[in-house]
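Inputs:
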Amino acid sequence: MSRAWVDLVYLIAAVLFILGLKGLTHPRTAVRGNLLGAVAMLLAVLVTLFDRQVFGGGVFGYTLIFLGLVIGSAIGVWLSITIRLESMPELVALFNGLGGAASFIVAGAYVTATPSDETSYAVSFATAASGLIGAVTLTGSLVAFAKLAGHPLLKRMPALPHSTVTNAVVGGVTLLLAFVCAISLSYDFWFWLVVIASLGLGYCLTISIGGADMPVVIALLNSYSGLAAAATGFVLQNNVLIIAGALVGASGLILTNVMCKAMNRSLTNVLFGTLGPTGETKDADEVYVNVKATGPDEVAMLLDVARRVVIVPGYGMAVAQAQHAVRDLANFLIAKGIEVEFGIHPVAGRMPGHMNVLLAEADIPYELLKEMDEINTSMEQTDVCLVIGANDTVNPDGRDNPKSAIAGMPIINADKARTCVVIKRSLSPGFAGIPNPLFAADNTLMFFADGKQAVLDILASLKEG
Amino acid sequence: MSRAWVDLVYLIAAVLFILGLKGLTHPRTAVRGNLLGAVAMLLAVLVTLFDRQVFGGGVFGYTLIFLGLVIGSAIGVWLSITIRLESMPELVALFNGLGGAASFIVAGAYVTATPSDETSYAVSFATAASGLIGAVTLTGSLVAFAKLAGHPLLKRMPALPHSTVTNAVVGGVTLLLAFVCAISLSYDFWFWLVVIASLGLGYCLTISIGGADMPVVIALLNSYSGLAAAATGFVLQNNVLIIAGALVGASGLILTNVMCKAMNRSLTNVLFGTLGPTGETKDADEVYVNVKATGPDEVAMLLDVARRVVIVPGYGMAVAQAQHAVRDLANFLIAKGIEVEFGIHPVAGRMPGHMNVLLAEADIPYELLKEMDEINTSMEQTDVCLVIGANDTVNPDGRDNPKSAIAGMPIINADKARTCVVIKRSLSPGFAGIPNPLFAADNTLMFFADGKQAVLDILASLKEG
Amino acid sequence: MFDSAFLLAQETAAASSLIAGLTIFALAIFVGVEVITKIPPTLHTPLMSGSNAISGITLVGAILAAGEYPGAAKLLGFLAIVLATVNVVGGFLVTHRMLEKFRAR
Amino acid sequence: MFDSAFLLAQETAAASSLIAGLTIFALAIFVGVEVITKIPPTLHTPLMSGSNAISGITLVGAILAAGEYPGAAKLLGFLAIVLATVNVVGGFLVTHRMLEKFRAR
Ligand SMILES: NC(=O)c1ccc[n+]([C@@H]2O[C@H](COP(=O)([O-])OP(=O)(O)OC[C@H]3O[C@@H](n4cnc5c(N)ncnc54)[C@H](OP(=O)(O)O)[C@@H]3O)[C@@H](O)[C@H]2O)c1
Ligand SMILES: NC(=O)c1ccc[n+]([C@@H]2O[C@H](COP(=O)([O-])OP(=O)(O)OC[C@H]3O[C@@H](n4cnc5c(N)ncnc54)[C@H](OP(=O)(O)O)[C@@H]3O)[C@@H](O)[C@H]2O)c1
């Protein structure tokens, strides 16, 4: 097919990508949206197979292509079927890295195949950008993957001394190389140098970021993988790459921003800063003088007489895999005529929307899931607030204590309910590593147990009594 | 300047246009948004003056250009300063027509100047589209202008017999000509034929549409003028024309859709249908058996003891120019501690947002202006609903009577207030031409007077008593 | 022979730039729809006159025509400049006048 | 002389297509921002993995490389195809698996 026809199909694919993303604006249409995206991809791939240039490559080319598609599909299907939903962030990180790698490799193939006198500055700039962003995405994502998966290899990876200085030096060198590559039209050699330097840069930038900050980093790398694809699109002058890449770039940036806002931290702070108890934060012994423990029977009694119950899940619910037990408890309460709602903090868990995925998996209707601001308006009319494995997201210090390490982070006001029951295994801190005054509040009862077991015990006790 | 630099500035202009429209999403940023749009236009015009091609045209070219810009600016400034805000729809219609005309004339200039063997089907299609849409926009807009301005010429314009048939024939012929023009590469002659036929078509299509439906038609023509500009952009392969044209095209279509929805009519119905009392509608004598008239003193007494008053303005407020008087009344009531809100129906008046412009002109804070759905939720808690020159938009038949000509049109529930006072000059109908059961409802009082005078009288009476 | 090859190449280039134009058009429509559906009814009248002013962008084309083309086409360009300028200048000014009222507070 | 004119023309064409590309890029960014800010937090995890799958679009470039280029470049293309396909297929499947849970009701 001639280029114009192929381009027309690419245009259709681009429109389908956009419509697919629009589908994701509502749970009801989200499945269709994702399918539309897949169809768009299929369309783009199919029409490329008929492109005149690919045709010119002959049988060997086609053999390679099909081999690649088959191998890649097999690995992709296998990964996506075997993965547990809780390991989602790792998997996204891994895929991200592969996408970034593919982008700079394609740019590399272009560089290798194109005589330098047939190129132009416009293209050489794009090539340098693709090499830089793609390679950073690859190693950055691999480090993020390893950290999240708690891979043993990571323990043997050296933590960098003076990370800020190292980062600055490696970053500077990489940018310089990229600049030289962009302005030298015979750039074959320079391109691969940029790639090597950028691989190092990706490693340096991510290795010193705290494991718990990885979700933000992953969203950012997600954005990068899109930008790398777009840069490759500029190299090949292929609009569907540019459009799809830009969409992903925007999406990643927006998610990064959402997460940073919900944690009240700046992106620079996540990327370069450290987080932890500052001098000003009271230590745990001081805070936890007056903690009241409880057990399943007492909680069941409280729930039995409640008219309105709000459940606030956190990372602990994911760890305990308690979502199905929570569903059963909620259904039992609803059947008794008690009003039950869920309060979902935007950064509860370890990914944006983490809790929503888990609760959806357990078939909890999304009408019951309320966002932070909405649930906070009715917290004072709530008889029991049941906090399951959440910690930082219900820490009143975020709201009240301007000296706290999480000062200014918006929280769910679990402490404003008449009674607050917190289920967690111990008094150990959450991600931010600071004590939580909620646990020692007058109206709080602590139920120390694994999240799933605790909920099952409460339910059993409710059914008995 | 070389084409690439010019294109780069066009890109910046396009981005500014988009940012300008984004500014219009909030009253606070709207002025800046409009200014951004103007800056974008200035930028695009300035850089065009430095384009290599224009440079090639020499002094004569520049003289013409400057002459044209000066004359056009003078007329534009004069029109925009002398117009009264109430005549807005006419003016927009007129500008629309000029824009459409400019678009097809530019396409015509291209056709005249370009030897037919230097062109391609891609361009000839775009040229035909530009001629068709641009010319329809011109005459359509002029007719709309004349109708809205109540121009005497209009009375001498022939109303078409069998309008549907005529429209179909003229439309068919025009489309056929456009098709021939598109596929014949030597299209100079055909192009002008298309233009002439389209001028006729624009006239035919609009001449038989009711004067009160003109706002919908104007929004549609607005969309067309954008599409004509975009088509011209395809002819000249100029991206800023394509982008700006597409933005306007989308805007016009959305406004058309908003208006149709708010009237519960389809676009086809507006363009080809008729509206008026159907056989099912009760006639006025039947409806108006039990109408209670009132005067300023009684209304003042009612307002005096009210705790919550909702004012519902309509087209009559625009006719009477009562907005300043209404402002004074509202301020007086607010100063007395009475809660005052305005209920704004999406198609009150004769343009989308018509009431908002008038009330803003009178400095009424936009926080007091509530949209239909919002005001309807609190109508039952309202002591007095003061309807000023509205009719169809408060006609309960839209909500209750499935056989009415306006069945299904969402309305403001003025009849649900404890007392409803309607200010209008007589019992004559509004735009839809049907009687309004609200006027005969038990809790309704009719105040027959000119809108402005009535409000001033009420205010005077309030101040006395 | 050469001529037809030349024409073909020309047609291909034209087709490519047509598709690029269509791509830009489609994306701009999406942007327009997304942005404009967010504009509140309060501002629909200014939106109408403001977007109307933007449609005068055809002025750019008119300037190119008046500058570049010879003879009759130049005069057509001149005519288009006048009409488009009225649309642009009048449109933005009138919108500004209207919006000023909104800003007052 | 001819050569440098040729190179210049080539550079100009490249610059033009660069600007067209930038235009498309800018519009797509706008579309992305507008559409994605409307996606509710509930769906942020599927959005992350779904948009990740879309970034595998580079597969199209990989296919072109493996088909068109000679020698080593072809093998690079092959490698890129494998990686990008894992990203695409895995990404869409995993997103689908997640979204199925949402649809259940
Ligand atoms: N969602 C995102 O996108 C995102 C991104 C980046 C960072 N973060 C950060 O992650 C944190 C999320 O807050 P969060 O309130 O959800 O959680 P959290 O503050 O991390 O606390 C989780 C709590 O769950 C408990 N827990 C662990 N395993 C458990 C089990 N099996 N049974 C019961 N409890 C268990 C832990 O206490 P025990 O050990 O005592 O049981 C821990 O205190 C925030 O600080 C946020 O800034 C989130
Ligand atoms: N806004 C839009 O975009 C748009 C577009 C297309 C169509 N429309 C249509 O326009 C209508 C608008 O409804 P509406 O309720 O605003 O108005 P309406 O139904 O047209 O009624 C206006 C009323 O105002 C009264 N009036 C006229 N001059 C007056 C004066 N000087 N003082 C006091 N009253 C005066 C008239 O009654 P008297 O003669 O008895 O005084 C008339 O009944 C709807 O049917 C809508 O579908 C609107």
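Residues 275-279 of chain B have pLDDT under 50 and may be disordered. Flag for discussion at group meeting.
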